[in-house]
Amino acid sequence: MRFKQHNAGYKKDSYTFSRRPVSLVFHQEFSDVLQAIYFEKKIKGWTRAKKRALIEGDFDMLQILAECRNATHHIYKPNE
What we know:
Number of helices: 4
Low-confidence stretches: none
Order of helices and strands: HHHH
């Protein structure tokens, strides 16, 4: 439904209005609309590489990209 709405340009002030036609490269079904909204907002914060891994179904790479690389992370701290 949302895909059709985006391509129809039902909302002229939306982000996708001037970027039409849009293409669907990934979808996920949810039983709860709040879970869907949460997941969509989460993906929006991801890097391009992480989104690409999701689109391509490369879950091994997605896992690698999801790991924390911060030097203060517990896996990088020396054992005391």
